[in-house]
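User: Could you check the structure of this?
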Amino acid sequence: MTRQCSSLLLTLLTDDLLARIHSHLLDPKDRKSFGQACIVFHRIDSLSRTRLQPLHPSIILSLLHKLPSVHTLDLSLCPRIDDSFAFAICPFLRHRCVRTLSLSRASGLTYAGLENLVRSCEKLEALDVSYWCRRFGDREALAMSCASGLKEVILDKCLKVGDVGLAHIAVGCVGLQSVSLKWCLEITDLGIGLLATKCLGLKFLDVSSLKITSQSLHSIAVLQELESLIMVGCVLVDDSGLHSLGNGCPSLKVVDMSRCDRVTSAGLCSLVRGHRQLQQLNASHCLVDLTSDLLCALKNLKHLNVFKVDGARVSHATFQTITKNFTSLVEIGLSKCIGLRDIYIIRLVTGCCNLRSLNLSCCDTVTDDAIAAIAGSCRKLQCLKLESCASVTEKNMKLLGYSCAHLQELDLTDCCGINDTALGFLSRCTELQFLKLGLCENISDNGLFYIASNCMKISELDLYRCPNIGDEGMAALSNGCKKLKKLNISYCNSLTDKGMEYIGRLEELYVLEMRALMNVTGVGLQAVAAGCTVLSVLDLKHCVNIQDAGFWALANYCKNLREINIGHCVISDTALWMLLSKLTCLQDANLVPLTNVSARGLELALRACCIQLKKLKLVGSFKTSLSHELLQFLWLKGCKIRWD
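Assistant: Sure, the predicted structure tokens are below.
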């Protein structure tokens, strides 16, 4: 009878209504469950799915055939794709309305494969080719320029693309609105000048770590629609460049000039005076102090909501300016600030009660009095960073737990005054998602029990070098924190195989750092491998008691592993070959050192996985032992080898 009612109900729901229901399922797990419920729901799920991120290239063709509505294709987890793969999927892409294509790390492609892909996506608007390293140059940029409708490109760490390549893109894609060139070390002032001349509609530009000078900022200043300029670590830029920006870019709202060593308060004054509409300003680790002229100029930034001056010298005048003028402030960065005192923080939080993010890392003068003031005033606080604040104890954590109900991220790394009592108070922050407790030597399983019992939304937990955390703590986590995705338990030497068994129950875990766990054997690793099947990153360095059986389990169960560190592990030639040959998604492997592995064994293991590897760390003595043919093949596939 129930089945008949369900069938009748399905006949009353049209595809449009079912599609609207499907659109309200935001969690990928819920969407997956929806598609598995029945044939009708599976069909609606296939028709409604707009984004595809496959884990392996072998399934892409069949998925594209089943998913006609895909407009975002993310191939960043498939580093093995090459030109032959590109030619194979191009016919399918011509019949799809793909607007966003991610080829990040896909350095197996050449200009021919890239050109065919972009030509097949006639409505392509966004393209990501980041981290091709030395495989992406001017010729590949020319192929990319065929996508004339591009509005967004990401070229981060394309180390061989230069001014000529950027010119090809600028001329071919004049409608660009967002360009990221982070770590494109061959691009100079000339390339940035050409980009600014041709792409006048740019709204976002990231030139971080480029070897450009203030001449580039003179060129950028003509961009009338530019809203965000990110130039982290542009060490050749000086005050004259900021002066040019101050007289141009009338739409500028976001500037990140952190770690620009040659910039001073005078240059920042010029920028601020010309842009009273600034909403976000990051001047971290580039200013010695905040001069009176700069503070005077900052008073005009009435719309500023993010302000970061990490590493600068601060004073009473600094916080007087902030509290009187930055009424919209929601985030402030004060880590490593010189001269910071409790009284300044008390004034800050009293005047800026809408703060949602506060970074006080490495401010050793911060005490419990400041914590009390934060708890009393910042009821909307979502992120609080107190790393290495040695004077902070459990004293006022009770106030923080009671008052900051919206807290989602808390960093207490190396806060030696934090203990189980403090964690008991903080467990009232039930919205916590990210918690860092590394180097907190006074916490134990009892404190972790408090957190696990109440903070069930935690997805990232750092317990690095917490010596009193043991198996019972892992038991508490496995029962209460089912959504845990990242866990660091490195150097927690009290953990044994029993604790690993509990960790194996965390089905959503995809990053696990467990260095130097001397009491964990292959039995414990088997439990983790069998339970945490979506594991993507695993660090086993110095886990010297794990036997081959544990690595065999990894090879059989953890097919999605993309990064692994097994340095100093006792693994045999056979187990290494099995591990590397079966992990077909592996991109990054640290194999330094493996004392039980021979040169012959390493050669065979690398030959089994060399197609997809992008980063590899090996002992320097193997440089002459491995065949030239293998090393040449790895280089041609874009694998970066570090010899240690």
